[in-house]
Amino acid sequence: MRQPTPPLVTLSLLFTLLFAIALAASVLTKLWLASRQMRHVAAHRDAVPALFADRISLAAHHKAADYTIAKTRFGLLGLAIGTAALLGWTLLGGLDLLNASLLKALGGGMWQQLALVAAFALISGLIDLPASYYQTFVLEQRFGFNKMTPGLWLADLVKGTVMGALVGLPILAVILWLMGSAGQWWWLWAWAFWVGFNLLLMVIYPAFIAPLFNKFQPLEDESLKARVQALMQRCGFAAKGLFVMDGSRRSAHANAYFTGFGASKRVVFFDTLLHKLNGDEVEAVLAHELGHFKHRHILKRMLGLFGLTLLGFALLGWLSQQGWFYTGLGVTPNLNIPGVPGASPNDALALLLFMLAVPVFSSFVSPLMAHSSRKHEFEADAYAVQQTRAADLQSALLKLYEDNASTLTPDPVYVRYYYSHPPAVERIRHMQQLAHD
């Protein structure tokens, strides 16, 4: 008589199938979107949009189109490598083999779990290393954006790895300890710890971590400083300082941003931004950034992130107790029986599998996140237009689009799926409409 299929096997096979379908759908969607983007940009390469014809040269438009197509094509290579690595870690048994090897070498316990996550991160970093090098020293170099030397690139890599280990491993140890010791509500305690750490990081990052990678000098242009301070006072915003960052050491791309939290907030300008924009344009860009604070976009995004991570920790708390979650992703769970010598917890395995699987299923949520971000950008533009001249913000945006080789003719569907900022055409028309209202 035929034996019924064990429920665990059935659930495992169903989850494997669901994971494979979601992964295939995600990859095919990204391939389709990338092909649309490259075709659309190439089709509009030889004509500057009429709205920008008097400001953007055909040569600059060509460069933006070629840069966009090259980046998108390179992204397809990254997608292929990432998909292969994901399958290698999961269904092809890579994570299972790594875990078994470390169990044999170290036995069970906290050290084995920390070693598992550290080894996973190290191997993943090595897999990504050639692509990172190519992007910096071939792709960015070809279009004149790279300013890094191999020595600086290597120094950043070492600093980032050391900082990640010094900060990440203790945090990981606390979370793994909570998973094993705090009972069924461990995920709530772990989430609270994660939130507290992130709030602390926002306070200490500007003064202690960022200076490890870049130099920050007080803004010395007294005229610009007076204008910026007057704008911030007019907008009811206080910052601890105005700083210029040596972004030109690494890239020709320009930017400005706020960093910090509470009393530690500071305004940071890339030196490249100050070289490319005049005082009116810098003020307009800063007004846009102030608009994000005025509309509480940063707070809303932070609260949204904290809410999503709470759901994520709760889901991880449930999945970590399901055998099919491990076997469905190609991993044999450890024997985890309290009080039994030699038993080893599955906490690090659950954490790694969750980090690998969630992006596959959540990739289809990205259009919603992108839509919300674009809405915030329109609101920040509207605020900037109220505080400064619309013409100055438009001029600044066009200079930044040109200097960063951002295409003026992206594919509309690609925009809706990925873009966190509205395309230049939409932003300029929106500002023109505001100016006429």
UniProtKB/TrEMBL annotation:
Chain ranges of the CAAX prenyl protease 1 N-terminal domain: 37-215
Listed Pfam families: Peptidase_M48, Peptidase_M48_N
Keyword Transmembrane assigned: yes
Key words of the record: Hydrolase, Membrane, Metal-binding, Metalloprotease, Protease, Transmembrane, Transmembrane helix, Zinc
Domain annotation Peptidase M48: ranges: 218-433
UniProt xrefs under Gene3D superfamilies: Metalloproteases ('zincins'), catalytic domain
Transmembrane region(s): 12-33, 74-92, 112-131, 152-179, 185-208, 302-320, 348-370
Note on how the cofactor is bound: Binds 1 zinc ion per subunit.
Top-level taxon in the UniProt lineage: Bacteria
InterPro entries: CAXX_Prtase_1, Peptidase_M48, Peptidase_M48_N
Cofactor names: Zn(2+)
Family: Belongs to the peptidase M48 family.
Protein name, as recorded: M48 family metallopeptidase
Organism from which the protein derives: Comamonas squillarum
